[in-house]
């Protein structure tokens, strides 16, 4: 078996890093970019994407541009009335943090 590209980063850390990158960037990322960012093989990135899709029910869009495969998190419909109430970034940040904690707790057991 080939040696790991990043022996110090666990599968879970890579999973969270990928999920956070897709969630917060709002951009498409190529398979090559993601494998370099995570210091792992393209096959591992594909496994991570599939695990996120299956385990967490997240809709990750996959597209091809030329011979490159790109991934991005599909945007959910946003209630604009709720969005307008966030004038202060701290309130929004706290809501995101509490949602993320609830998400982690749900998956921990």
Question: Could you explain how this protein is built, in words?
Answer:
There is one protein chain. The longest helix has 20 residues. β2 and β3 form a beta hairpin. The protein starts with 10 loop residues before the first helix and ends with a helix. About 8% of the residues have low confidence. Strands 1-3-2 form a 3-stranded antiparallel β-sheet. α1 packs across α3 and α2 crosses α3. With 109 residues, it is of the alpha+beta class. It has 2 domains: 76 residues, Arc Repressor Mutant, subunit A (Orthogonal Bundle); 31 residues. It is globular. The chain has 5 helices and 3 strands; from the N terminus they run αβααββαα.
Q: How would you briefly describe this protein structure?
A:
This protein is an alpha+beta fold.
């Amino acid at each position: 078996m080939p040696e790991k590209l990043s022996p110090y980063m666990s599968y879970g850390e890579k999973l969270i890093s990928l999920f956070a990158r897709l969630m917060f960037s709002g951009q498409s990322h190529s398979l090559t970019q993601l494998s370099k960012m995570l210091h792992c093989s393209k096959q591992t990135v594909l496994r991570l994407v599939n695990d996120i899709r299956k385990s967490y029910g997240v809709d990750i869009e996959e597209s091809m541009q030329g011979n490159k495969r790109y991934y991005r998190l599909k945007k959910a419909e946003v209630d604009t009335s709720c969005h307008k109430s966030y004038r202060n970034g701290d309130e929004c940040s706290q809501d995101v943090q509490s949602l993320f904690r609830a998400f982690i707790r749900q998956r921990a057991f």
